[in-house]
Queue: 4 jobs
Job 1
Amino acid sequence: MVFLTHIGSTISGRPAAINYGNGSISGYFSKDNVEVGDLVVKHQGFIEVTKDPGVTFLARKFDGILGLGFKENSVGNAITVWDNIVSQHLVKHHVFSLWLNRQSEDNEGGEIVFGGFDPKHYKGKHTYVPITQKGYWQV
């Protein structure tokens, strides 16, 4: 889970908007300390959403979006959560891993691990491959 800790939150007031596959959001940039699991990412920039014209957030089981893309693709060239995790030395290994549960009837939707991986979700060896398109996690 991701939580804002509201320790010294600042609002820049700079407008922001994101258009995505099935909708868009708009609001303004703010900064706060953000808890990602047991990590505390200090002074993380984010968008406080004030307008969500679609039903995306109402129809799904989530409250927001945690951007893990590259800075090159971020709105307003914002520093991403992952870049701040690395620059603040919050993880020993500069990797993160995803496990997506494909069993829709399960209560557990998936898992993200920052700084490593969870061995209960794979068998065998990992193979590291280079990113083939800068700006995306395309391999």
Job 2
Amino acid sequence: MTHVYNNTFFDYIDEGARRSARAFIDLLQPHLDAASVLDLGSGRGVWLDEWSKAGVADVLGVDGDYVDRSRLAISSDDFLAADLTRPVDTGRRFDLAQSLEVGEHLPTEASDALVDSLTRASDRVLFSAAVTGQGGEFHVNEQPLSFWQGLFAARGYRAYDCIRPALSDNGDVEPWYRYNAVLYVNEAGRAGLPVAILRHAVPEGQAVANGGNWPWRLRRAVVSVLPQGTVTRIAQTRAALIAAQARARSGLAA
């Protein structure tokens, strides 16, 4: 990545990420029964910590070398430092690979590398990335969901829109997760999936539509016309305030 994300950034996202992870895992794990999970763009590993609490013993988080190892939510042995703009090959396959709200932080030309890394790692991929106008800290690659759908389709992975209908009104889940997350599965990964997931297959040729309620759509409309620098400054200011509140609640120092 071309930008270094500091502890303030992770203090901001971790609390909401943990709440969101619990809801996602409660929804998906009964159907996926994953025994191993890879997270590309894992940050401190909050999502993987929740997967572990749900009984997944084999987890691996991958993110930039800037992640503070002393603040990891997972074992340092379960963390790999790597440049996500380049293909990542762990040398093995996982029951599930995920990358959540990471693609927007990578240059557009690195999008293929991210999807290659995910599909190399698993037959089932849980994926979300910021859509156009979402706004955030150094979002350099916001795209419609159909953009990523096309990259996965080119590799034989079909979209299953099974998460958003179930969680779209769940206020415990951060909106960028509940409005953007899609499960991508290839033919091998389709085997063993229950009807509860299979019935949400997106028909071939049909684009995955951007989601969200009217406040979310209004936010995107406003943010989309603001200069990128302004959007970044707003996001950083908001993140600093929320991170300070999170540290105060947990008793952590800045």
Job 3
Amino acid sequence: MRHFLVGLLALVFLTLAGGKAMAYDPENTLFMDLKDGRVVIEMRPDLAPKTVARIKELVRQHFYDGVVFHRVIAGFMAQTGDPTGTGRGGSGKKLPAEFNGEHHLRGTVSMARAADPDSADSQFFICFAPAEFLDGQYTVWGHVTEGMEFVDKIKKGDPQSGAVNNPDKIIRMQVAADVKQ
């Protein structure tokens, strides 16, 4: 009977997306709407419970809605989460490092930080390509499961090079469990 209930519960979380079936946990799935389409991010509380809890808290406060991608480097990553758009801002609450054994691969979502390992706040980045040199030094907390093609279309630019003119932004970010169907 227990196996039947587990299977039934899995079916409850089954959704059709882009013509393919994908099972997900709505409480640990983010929908990030960009100008070109929706990006689905699977959050990993098993890897970084404090980080995932804080990201969900900020998402539910609409903190990320309208925030720009202030640093986007082709072949490397797209960084966002600073409400000032300068790369120096955040939510004002530092997070302890939750470094883990996950690799920085294409679609990995990880926290940005300063030199202090415990300086992550609200800024995060999505890898365009493998970046194993970051492994063990940044908190990996999720992975893009759908919509990476929309991440690829984010306008490239970096404030340090002065090449950010009208940067792309997060239109809206939501925890899947909060989305009215």
Job 4
Amino acid sequence: MNKQELIDLVSEGAEANKADVAKVLDTMLHTIKNTVAEGDTVNLVGFGSFSMGERAARTGRNPQTGEPIQIAASKAVKFSAGKAFKDFVNAK
């Protein structure tokens, strides 16, 4: 499912205008991105939580030559599904 299909389904279910649903979805995603980028966690009870993790710098190998390369430290986005979400998926 892509973003437009999600907007279509939500607008049908909520009996709302597609433009309004798109605006709400865009605002929600923007807020989640900004909150996680600032280092905070977004916890949606029953659905899951979005947070930021740190990856340490490390040494890797070039798969073509086998020569060692340095991989820089980076930030990663984590999503942990909530119990209700996991239970719903496992029940299907």
